[in-house]
Design brief:
By secondary structure, the chain is of the alpha/beta class. It folds into two domains: about 100 residues, Enolase-like, domain 1; about 220 residues, Alpha-Beta Barrel (TIM Barrel), CATH 3.20.20.120. Helix 8 packs parallel to helix 9. The strands form three sheets. It has a seven-stranded parallel beta sheet with strand order 6-7-8-9-10-11-12. It has a four-stranded antiparallel beta sheet with strand order 3-2-1-4, with helices on both faces. The chain has twelve helices and 13 strands. Helix content is about 35%, strand content about 20%. It binds magnesium ion.
C-alpha cells in the first residue's frame, strides 16, 4: 500500500557563518519529507545535501520528490537512484518512523558524550575554558582554515588550555597535502590528540594511498569524514582495511543499513557519529542511529546547537552529553509547521 508523501523545502540562515576549509557557509538548504500511512501513522525524514561532499543538490531532491508524486510505496526507496543519498536517508528514516522502529528507548545507555566544537584559529583558546567548565572533555578544533604555520604554532597553546585527561580532535577538512599532514602528524605524536580528521581531500589525486600510508606511518589515528559519503564508500574503505576512525554523518549515508552492519562487525569501536548541520529532524534520525550503535561510543560530533538563526530548527543545545529522552522529544511536526 503506498504511503502519502509530502515535502517542504527549506533555506535557513545559520546564526553565525560556519567557516571550514570548504569555505564559509551562511545558510543551509534541504527538504523535510513526511510520509503518512493509510492508517494515519506519520514518519519524518530530512534530506540535507552537501553537494561539496559529493551528494545530490537540494534541487535534485526536490525534483525527485515531485517525480515520486503523492504516493510512495516502500519499494520506491530501493528503486531510487543510489546517487540520491540524502533523499534515501530521509525516506529510510521516515519509513522506520512509520513502522515505529525509530525510538531509542531500548538502549541501556541513556546518554552519550558530545565533543565541543572549537572555531578555527586563535578563537579556539577563548572557547576552551567555558566549555571545560561546562564539563566537555572531548574537543574538536577546525584546522586548515587559516595560515598553516600560525595554526601549527597554536597547537601547544590549545593543548595547554585543555583540562587534564581531555582529548583533542583536529579536523582539516581535506585542506592539507602530504607534507603538511606529515608536519602535523609529527607534532601530534606526543600530544593528547584522539585523531586527525580528513587530513587529505577525498578527491585529491592518490588520496587513498596517501591516507593509508600516513595512517601506517604515524601513531596518531586518522579519521575519514568527507571520504565516507554513501554506504558504498564505507564498504570501499572497509575493503581497503582502513585502520583508523570512521566519521559517519548518517544524513549522507543513504540509509545504508547493510554497510552499517558490516562496519559494526569490523570496526564498531572506531566510529564517530557526526552532524551534517541538518535541522533537528535529520539530527533525530542520525542520533537514533548513534544510540542504537552497540560498539564503544566515542563522543558525538553533535556539539553544533544553537546553529540556526531561527532556534526552532535546532536540536538540543550543546551540552557535554545528549540524553536519549532529548532525542525522543524532538518534534518534527513543529518544524514542519514552522516551514509552512
Ligand atoms: Mg569533518
Amino acid at each position: 500500500m503506498p504511503h502519502r508523501l509530502s515535502f517542504r523545502r527549506y533555506r535557513l540562515p545559520f546564526r553565525a557563518a560556519v567557516r571550514t576549509a570548504h569555505g564559509v557557509w551562511a545558510e543551509r538548504e534541504g527538504v523535510i519529507v513526511r510520509l503518512e500511512s493509510e492508517g494515519g501513522a506519520v514518519g519524518w525524514g530530512e534530506a540535507a545535501p552537501l553537494a561539496e561532499f559529493g551528494t545530490e543538490t537540494a534541487d535534485e531532491v526536490e525534483a525527485a520528490c515531485r517525480g515520486a508524486g503523492e504516493g510512495l510505496a516502500a519499494e520506491t526507496l530501493t528503486a531510487l537512484p543510489r546517487r540520491l543519498l540524502c533523499l534515501r536517508s530521509a525516506l529510510a528514516a521516515a519509513l522506520a518512523g512509520l513502522e515505529g522502529s525509530g525510538a531509542v528507548g531500548h538502549r541501556p545507555s541513556r546518554y552519550l558524550p558530545v565533543a565541543a566544537l572549537l572555531p578555527a584559529g586563535r578563537a579556539a583558546l577563548v572557547q576552551i575554558p567555558p566549555k571545560a567548565e561546562a564539563g566537555f572533555r572531548t574537543f574538536k578544533w577546525k584546522v586548515g582554515a587559516g595560515d598553516a604555520a600560525d595554526e601549527l604554532a597554536l597547537l601547544d597553546d590549545v593543548c595547554a588550555a585543555l583540562p587534564t585527561g581531555s582529548k583533542l580532535r583536529l579536523d582539516a577538512n581535506g585542506a592539507w597535502d602530504r607534507r603538511r599532514a606529515e608536519l602535523w602528524l609529527e607534532r601530534c605524536a606526543e600530544r593528547p590528540v584522539e585523531f586527525i580528521e580528513q587530513p587529505i581531500a577525498a578527491e585529491a589525486k592518490g588520496a587513498e594511498d596517501l591516507l593509508l600510508g600516513l595512517a601506517a606511518d604515524y601513531p596518531t589515528p586518522l579519521a575519514l569524514d568527507e571520504s565516507l559519503v554513501g554506504g558504498d564508500a564505507v564498504d570501499h574503505w572497509l575493503g581497503l582495511g582502513w585502520p583508523g576512525i570512521f566519521v559517519l554523518k548518517p544524513s549522507l549515508l543513504g540509509g545504508a543499513a547493510e554497510s552499517l552492519a558490516r562496519l559494526e562487525k569490523a570496526a564498531s569501536d572506531r566510529v564517530v557519529f557526526s552532524s551534517a548541520l541538518e535541522t533537528a529532524v535529520g539530527a533525530r534520525a542520525a542520533l537514533r542511529t548513534a544510540f542504537a550503535w552497540p560498539g564503544k561510543t566515542r563522543a558525538l560530533g553533535f556539539g553544533v546547537w544553537p546553529l540556526f538563526a531561527d532556534g526552532r530548527f535546532d536540536g538540543p543545545a550543546s551540552a557535554p552529553f545528549i540524553r536519549s529522552e532529548d532525542v525522543d522529544r524532538i518534534n518534527p511536526e513543529a518544524i514542519w509547521t514552522a516551514l509552512a
